[in-house]
Amino acid sequence: MQDAVARQDLIDILLADRKRFVEVAQRVLKCRARAEDVVQEAALRIWQSGSGTELHSPKGYVRRMIRNLAIDAVRQVGFECRLLAPIAHAEGAASPCACPQERMEACQALKAVFAALDLAPARTRRAILAHRLDDVPQKTIAAENGVSPTLVNFMIRDATALCRRALDDEIGMVPAAVAA
Question: What's the topology of domain 2-91?
Fold first, then answer.
């Protein structure tokens, strides 16, 4: 019950000198509307607090609370300004990918390539994946499979041709990076 009385006393002080408290906040914030918001925030915090301590200067306590909230509001605005760039600078920002459509086309092309590789013999599929993705030398692939390096070269050539045909069927042309 004593907390409720202390809260009510602080609210009464805030309401009695509301204009002066708004001016205190306005000196820090340089904006009357934001100062009003800070005073309302102080009222809410006083109302929600469960302070059971004895205050020697309740009016000074409320003034200090409002001033601190105003300083916090200034800091928050400064943080937001540093965090968020103005719209004018947004055009220069890099996007995650150059173009969403290009990314979708690349995904479709990759799916077509893997579908084509699924049709290839298992030994050919393993050879091209090991050589192109894992950078395993053709001689090593030949030794692991017990075949000649020339046969590995032909398997990789055949699988590459299969992938190019799949890309040509999928998107109508072979991208320059794949054609090379």
Answer: Rna Polymerase Sigma Factor; Chain: A (1.10.1740)
